[in-house]
Amino acid sequence: MSHEATLHGHDSHGHDDHGHHEHHDTFLTKYVFSQDHKMIAKQFLITGMVWAVLGGLMSVLFRLQLGYPDASFPWLESILGKWAKGGQITPEAYYALVTTHGTVLVFFVLTAGLSGTFANFLIPLQVGARDMASPFMNMLSYWFFLAASVVMLSSMFVETGPFSGGWTAYPPLSALGDASPGSKTGMDLWIIAMALFVVSSLLGGLNYIATILNMRTKGMSMTRLPLTIWALFFTAVLGVLSFPVLLSGFILLIFDRNFGTSFYLSDIFVNGVGALSNEGGSAILYQHLFWFLGHPEVYIILLPAMGMVSEIMSINSRKPIFGYMAMLGSLFAIAVLAFLVWAHHMFVTGLNPFLGSIFVLLTLLIAVPSAIKVFNWLTTLWRGNIRFTPAMLFAIGFVSLFISGGLTGIWLGNAALDIHLHDTYFVIAHFHIVMGVASMFGMFAGVYHWFPKMYGRYLNNSLGYIHFWVTMAGAYLIFWPMHYEGLAGMPRRYFDFSIWESFKQFAELNRFISTVSMIVFAVQILFLINFFYSIFKGRKVTTQNPWEANTLEWTTPINPGHGNWPGEIPEVHRWAYDYGKDGKDFIPQDVPVGADESSSH
Amino acid sequence: MSNHDSHSAEHHHDAIAEIKKVTIILSVLTIVELILGFWMIGITSEGMRLAIKGVIVILMMAKAFYIVAYFMHLKHEIKNFIMTVIVPLALFIWFIIAFLSDGNSFRNLRNTYDPHFKEQSTIKVEEKHHGATHEATEKHEAGAAEKHEATEKHEAAH
Amino acid sequence: MSNVTTASSEAKWWGGGKSPFNVEYGKVMMWYFLMSDAFTFGAFLISYGTVRFSTNGWPDPNKVFKSFPFAPEGVNAPLVFVSIMTFILIVSSVTMVLAVHAGKMMDKKGVVRNMIWTIIGGIAFLSCQAWEWNHLHHEGAWWGVNPFINADGTASSTNFTNFFFTITGFHGFHVFSGVVINIVMLIMTLMNKFEERGHYLMIEKAGLYWHFVDLVWVFVFTCFYLL
Hints:
The structure holds 3 protein chains of 3 kinds. Chain A is mainly α.
């Protein structure tokens, strides 16, 4: 009773307070310390883009080394200094680039940039809320992310370089300062940045969950939520339950680094230092703790993309999503399985083989919900009246990549095959296609689709098509050949393959991959130009609902203010996928059910 | 609101009675745990100790249940809300089984393939006395030096 | 809102427009925060278990935690001191429930009285922990140093003390922040903040946190002192 009073209190507060005070905002409160979820989403998106460019540039640099191991590029020395003595990247710099590329892309771009952007932007708009449950915590979430970004960025400018032991930060390289140059200050900063990042994602995740559960508008029952919201909900749940475990692992790591403990260390001899006194620890323990987060993290990256793709695909096929409840069930199954399969990353670490076989079984089970999703997407396309917008193309591209990358996951999930394929380019090909590029495609689809809602203007379509086709072809040209290299045993994280007889044959192929990666990177710059040009000069949106979609965000004004709806929040009367029903092209969620309307689709 | 007030006196008594009841249950459970703990000191049989430890773990879970259900009031929330809290906690089952069994397997592997590890866990040592911080550190360093020497010898032999 | 339609009649247990759980959003958030914190502590305790399982010997807690403040040197009183700590925390949890209950009754005096007792309980627990840490430190135990030997008389790795100090330290940090939160709540109560708002929901949320701290102690106590 008193609860209800507070809830409604919050509601009317949001309305009265935020409805019409746009002109009171200063630059600082509107763009910097904003508590409006839409602005916070844009902050996440643009910070994520900055990181994507940096992370992509890093990959171009180390691809340069892999493609042209003997060549020397004097301009490299002028930008990297001592890290590229004589125009060639040093091994230390190479490892630092690989590590930072992984960390940045996985956490800062595809976690914060993807779910940070779209969870913030879409959750209140699509569930029908004025803002997040706690706008203040939402703002803090972005600021913790920015602090993490600043610390991570600063680690690149320290004397001993950024951390260079791989994005997974396995001990002893991460636990011993003497292990390598990057394990010194670089690692301290890396761990601080990651701890800040965990705080950011917890603040955000709690907010997303509370908003989805508690702040839905009248009539918006859980089974009427668009699939985007469901996907973002499970993403938030995964984050809230798995990031704390990473935090625990990092706390133990900090103690190992600084306070003489040996949680992860045992019987270690460091060249030039001697035998260490650490005894009784277990490096495998760290890997368990890391991958207990690490595997759900893969789905934290992938699920938002899946949700957005479902939504975009249904809208642009002008058909209801096929198997809504099956989509929900498979999302739930993936979220649960995400927590049960972590040790499939550790088959060759000395994991108990019997335990490993259980992990194989659980891992292969993921194929079931994944296949359900794929078939549902394909059936949604089937005989649809498809509109090939850039967003739709990226959504279809996502499905293509998800299939080709997912199938190799079945190979890698088998412990027996994994012994051969572990730590080879096969793994790189697998996770880049299924997690990296596929999620990037989901993100692009989301940006192209919701750009009109974000900025009230359209992105340029022609540039969008060029962006899509080059990226799509490039993604396959880069990563497909890597499967063959991996099957031939070519290991990841090696600095120079030209000195091995067995891998010399791949010199041409490596050069080809490097060249394509540079072209693809250049096309992403084209997208950025399109993005920033269109914010200011793009074609203006003139109708409230440009894609003729059903969800609630298109019932707001073209440029919604803080509080989203100028009047009352619309009430929801139906699910989000009434396309092509009763001869009508689409029926938005806030349209009441007509008397003569057929009961189901 | 008026509806709320008229029932409040009755509700008040119920709630206080419940708090009293749960306090007594928690105290009794803790006392039983402690009695088992004291009893275990004198027992040397491994199987018996393991059985007592099992009972203690069950009592621990019971205590946790009473705290969460009554003190944290979860039992009086809506069922769906209870489920959103209980279901994710089920992840702990596999979390615990997998971690502990892999820890156990790591010990077996080391006992089988690492003679040094096995040997270290059979040598009896004297218990140290108060104020042993410095001694302990020195001992540790000495141990490290010894290991260092051993490694050097090992390398020299090659 | 009068726009009841056929659609809302088919909604099963919730029609929207208010919290489906009849719980304020802050309480929902607190619950899920505690869930995530449970995974932090869970990861610590499970790591402790994993390392213990991967080691051949482990010190006997009854030989390590056997002293008592003001008792003569060499006293053998296992479990006594820690049982007092446990009871302090349980009693402070009970007073916290009473404070939450008083809050629901809008009984400001009851809230103040019980919050003061809870804070005293928290400080008493922290003092006990400080004494125990200090005592163990004097015996030569610290992060990276372990003066105790295994129950079977063999040399022990430092992970016994490493985990003990890390986990009880992390729990103590939670108790400390709980005490700080409770003090803030007490001050807000005395300033009539909650009377003005018409509800004591903040006390309930602080209560959830405090009970969680007690709950974690149930596990820490069992894992380190009994098993």
